[in-house]
Amino acid sequence: MPKLDDDVLASLTHARAALEEALCTDTEGLSPEALAQSCYLLWDLCLSCGDRAAALNHLAHGIALHPVRLGRGETPRAVLALAVPGDLQANIPLSHLLEPGVAVHVLWVTPDLLLRLDALRLPGVEAAVTVMSESVAHHESLSLARQVAQRLGLPMLNDPRAIAGASRTTMAVELAGIGGLVVPPCQAVNSIRAPDPALFPALVRPLASHAGQGLFLCDTRAQFLAWRESCDEPMDAYVTRFVDVRSADGLYRKYRVVFVNGEPFPVHLAIHDDWGVWYYNAGMERFAGRRAEEERFLGDIGAVLGASGIATLREIAARVGLDYCGLDFGRLDDGRLVLFEVETGMIVHDNDPAEIYPYKAPAIARIRAAFGHMLGQRAATVGIS
Description:
Layout: H1 6-25, H2 32-48, H3 52-65, E1 68-69, E2 78-83, E3 103-108, H4 113-116, E4 125-130, H5 139-152, E5 156-157, H6 160-164, H7 168-174, E6 181-182, E7 186-189, E8 202-206, E9 216-218, H8 221-230, E10 237-241, E11 252-260, E12 263-272, H9 288-299, H10 301-320, E13 324-331, E14 337-343, H11 360-379
Parallel strand pairs: 2-3, 2-4, 4-5, 6-14
Antiparallel strand pairs: 1-3, 7-10, 8-9, 8-10, 11-12, 11-13, 13-14
Helix pairs in contact: 1-2, 2-3, 9-10
C-alpha cells in the first residue's frame, strides 16, 4: 500500500488517541457488540500508525467481546469474511474487492468460535469467503473456517484446504511441468536441515515473512550457513533457486495478476533496475516510459503475454484451485513465465494517485466486477459440498 503522508498520519494518530481516551472514560451503556466495533476501529488506526503490538491488543479485546466486525452501510446484502487474527498481511481486505452495495462482516476465527456461533447476528449474509493468507500459523484456523461455514449453511469461496496447500514448497511441486512456466525449486529449511547445494544461487526469506521482508540473495550454500550461524535465534527459511529475469534492456519486471474464478486479471507491473523489485521500491512515478508499459499490460494482458502466456496462467489457476488468489511472476525474453509466488492474501486497491496512474482504476474496476459476478453466482447455490 502507498505510504501515508505526514498530515494523514498525524490525523490518524489524533483519532487513535481520542478513541482510546473515550474507551477508557466513557463506555457506560455501550453493549459488548458496540464496544467491540470500537476496538476493531482502533486495530485499524494502530496498524496505520505503525503500532502493531497495540493493534493486536485491541483486536484481541474486541474478539473477546464480540467476534464479528460489522460492515458499514445500510444494505440488505452482505458477505462473511472468515479471517484469522493478525495484521494487514494476515487476511485479504475483502471490502477492496467489492463494489458498493455489499457489506463485509468479518468473523474472526478463533479456537472457541464454534461455541459462540449460535449467539451471533449475521444480517443478510449470502456467502462466506475465506480471506486468510497461507501460513503454517494459520492452519488450525483454516480447518475451523470450513466447519464454521458448514455450521452456518453458507456457500463458501476459497476452500480453506486449498489455501493451506498453497505454500511456496507445495506450489513449487504442484505447478512444475506446466508448459511455458519456469518453476524454481524451493526448500523449507531450519536449524537442523540445510538446503540442497544445487539450489544456489538462491533467494532466502524467513518462513513467515511477506512483502520482501528479510529477503536476500545468497550466492552459495556456505554463505547461507554463515548467515544462519549469525542469527540470534533459530531461523526457519524458504530457499528458492534464483532465476535471473533481467530483460535485454537491463531491467527487472515483476508482473502481478489476480485470478477470479480461474481467469487472470492484471494488477500491476513493477519495473526496476534491481532484482529485488516491489511496486513501491521501483519508483514507477518517476518513469513515464515504464508507466506506459504498465498501462499496456493492464489494458490488454493478452496482447502482452500472448495466447500461450494466458493459457499458462489459466493452468496455474486450475492447479491452485482457489476462487480468488494472486500471482507474482517474471518473464524471460523467450516468453516463458517465471513463478515468483502464489499469494493467497493478495491486496488489490485503487489508492494510487489517479493523475499519475489514470489506467489503474479501470483495471481494478474490472476485477471488482468479476468478483461480484462470481459472488452472485455462488450465493445462488445452496449449501456447501
